[in-house]
Write a structure and sequence with these properties.
Shape: globular
Distance between the termini: 33 Å
Strand content: under 5%
Function: Fluoride-specific ion channel. Important for reducing fluoride concentration in the cell, thus reducing its toxicity.
Number of strands: 0
Structural class: mainly alpha
Keywords: Cell membrane, Ion channel, Ion transport, Membrane, Metal-binding, Sodium, Transmembrane, Transmembrane helix, Transport
Protein name: Fluoride-specific ion channel FluC
Order of helices and strands: HHHHH
Helix content: over 70%
Number of helices: 5
Membrane topology: Multi-pass membrane protein
Radius of gyration: 16 Å
Catalytic activity: fluoride(in) = fluoride(out)
Largest sheet: none
């Protein structure tokens, strides 16, 4: 059972990481502003919120989609590096990037959980 889950996460992470790279290639950064990373993290937070309400935490599907694909798709490390690099050029813009990522990320996760909740369930 553990080996299967490890393989599910590895496979999902490969898919998610490739998808993140594809998005980064499609969405050019706005100057020094890491627009692709912001977009990926917000979409990922929304989808993780939906998964959190739709799938039991112990299911293989949630492990594959949530921990694997979306874990590989979203990226805290790129967010942190992008913020530090942006800080060197524009501290104000870097602060805005950090605030936007955190605030909108939490809002996207909350929205995802509301969207994911089944009708009639509160």
């Amino acid at each position: 059972m553990t080996l299967r889950r490890l393989l599910l996460v590895a496979l999902g992470g490969t898919v998610g990481t490739a998808a993140r790279l594809a998005i980064a290639l499609l969405i050019p950064d706005a100057g020094a502003f890491p627009l692709a990373t912001l977009a990926v993290n917000l979409v990922g937070a929304l989808l993780i919120g939906i998964l959190a309400t739709r799938l039991p935490g112990s299911s293989d599907t949630r492990v594959f989609l949530g921990t694997g694909i979306l874990g590989g798709f979203t990226t805290y490390s790129a967010f942190a590096v992008g913020a530090v690099q942006l800080w060197a050029q524009s501290p104000l813009l870097a602060g805005l990037y950090v605030i936007l990522t955190l605030t909108l990320g939490v809002a996207a996760a909350v929205l995802g959980m509301r969207v994911g909740r089944r009708r009639g369930t509160r």
